[in-house]
Design a protein that fits this description.
Blueprint lengths: L10 E3 L6 H18 L2 E5 L3 H5 L8 E4 L9 E4 L19 E4 L12 H7 L4 H17 L8 E7 L16 H11 L5 E7 L2 H7 L5 E5 L4 H9 L3 E3 L4 H10 L3 E3 L27 E2 L1
Parallel strand pairs: 1-2, 1-5, 2-3, 4-5, 6-7, 6-9, 7-8, 9-10, 10-11
Keywords: Glycoprotein, Glycosyltransferase, Golgi apparatus, Signal-anchor, Transferase, Transmembrane
GO molecular function: galactoside 2-alpha-L-fucosyltransferase activity
Pfam family, one: Glyco_transf_11
Length: 282
C-alpha cells in the first residue's frame, strides 16, 4: 500500500524531550500507538532520531520535511513516565494527536517490535565506527567474532550519583553478579561503555578479557553495545535501548529507583511495564 496519505488524514505526532534513550522510547511508543490506530506516525527530517537511524517511510511512518501534519495536534499524555497507561490509547484516530511525554514502556510497541527493529538501523558512519571499535578489540586478542562472545557493559553513573529525585545507580555487586553469569558463556569478551571511566576501571571484575571504550559520541557507544551478543545494562533509558537493540540476553539492576521517591512513582509497582520480558533482573 502507498505510504502517502491525503492531507486531510489524521496522524500521530511525537513529543521529543530528553536525550537519545528518551527519544527512542518516544519514537517506538509513538510508532506503536500509530500502528494500533492504523494511522501514520510523523517524524521530522531534522529530528535527532532521523539523523542517527535510517528511518524509512512505511505504512506507519512518515518522514516529513516540515512536520506540518502536526500543526494542530491535540496532546495526549501519560499518567506515569515509565509505566504503561492504557488511557493514552483511549482516543479516536479521526484527528491528529501528539503523544507524550516519555512513554517508557515496551507495552506501547510490543505489537510492532519487529518493524521497530527494522527501522532502528544505525546510519553507516555510526555503525562503521562501532564495528571498528569492536574489531580493534578482536585484533588485540588475535581472535575473530565467531570465536568469542562479546558482552557489552553499560555503566551509567555521572549524572545520577547524587541526584535527589531517587535514581539509584547499579552497584559493584550487581556488575560482579552479571559478569559471573556471562563468564559461563564461551570465550567472553567484555566491552565497557561508561560515563564514569575511573569507577568502571576500579570496579568491573577483571577475571576475563575486559576492554573500555572511550571518546565516542553517545550514538556510537550505543551502536557498540547494540552490536554485542549480550548486554549488561545499568540504569536509565539509554542502557535499556542498548540492551533491546542487541537482541541477546540482557541483565538489569532491579532497583533503579529509591522506594518512596518521585522517580519510583513513575514505574508500575513491579517495574514490569518497564523491564522487557525475559530480561534477567539481578
Amino acid at each position: 500500500p502507498s505510504t502517502t496519505r491525503s492531507p486531510s488524514a489524521s496522524y500521530i505526532c511525537p513529543t521529543f524531550t530528553g536525550r537519545l534513550g528518551n527519544n527512542l522510547f518516544q519514537f517506538a511508543s509513538g510508532y506503536g500507538i500509530a500502528a494500533s490506530k492504523n494511522v501514520q506516525f510523523v517524524i521530522g527530517e531534522g529530528d535527532n532520531i532521523n539523523k542517527i537511524f535510517k528511518l524509512k517511510a512505511d505504512n506507519h511512518l512518515i518522514v516529513s520535511k516540515t512536520r506540518r501534519e502536526c500543526a494542530a495536534a491535540k496532546f495526549r499524555g501519560e499518567g506515569r513516565a515509565s509505566g504503561f497507561d492504557p488511557n493514552v490509547l483511549k482516543f479516536k484516530a479521526d484527528t491528529t494527536h501528539r503523544v507524550g511525554n516519555f512513554l517508557q514502556s515496551w507495552k506501547y510497541f510490543h505489537n510492532v517490535s519487529s518493524d521497530i527493529r527494522g527501522q532502528l538501523k544505525f546510519r553507516d558512519h555510526i555503525q562503521t565506527k562501532a564495528d571498528s571499535t569492536i574489531n580493534g578489540f578482536l585484533k588485540k586478542y588475535n581472535t575473530t567474532r565467531e570465536n568469542v562472545t562479546v558482552i557489552g557493559i553499560h555503566v551509567r553513573r555521572g549524572d545520577m550519583v547524587n541526584h535527589g529525585f531517587g535514581y539509584q545507580v547499579a552497584t559493584k555487586e550487581y556488575f560482579e553478579k552479571a559478569v559471573a553469569l556471562f563468564n559461563n558463556y564461551s570465550s567472553p569478551l567484555f566491552v565497557v561503555c561508561t560515563n564514569d571511566l575511573a569507577w568502571s576501571k576500579a570496579n568491573i571484575p577483571k577475571s576475563s578479557k575486559v576492554e573500555f571504550v572511550s571518546g565516542n559520541s553517545p550514538e556510537v557507544d550505543m551502536a557498540v553495545m547494540a552490536s554485542c551478543d549480550h548486554v549488561i545494562t545499568s540504569v536509565g533509558s539509554y542502557g535499556w535501548w542498548a540492551g533491546w537493540l542487541s537482541n541477546g540476553t540482557v541483565t538489569y539492576y532491579k532497583w533503579p529507583a529509591r522506594e518512596g521517591s518521585g522517580l519510583r512513582s513513575a514505574y508500575s509497582s513491579d517495574y514490569m511495564d518497564y523491564f522487557y520480558p525475559h530480561w534477567i533482573g539481578l
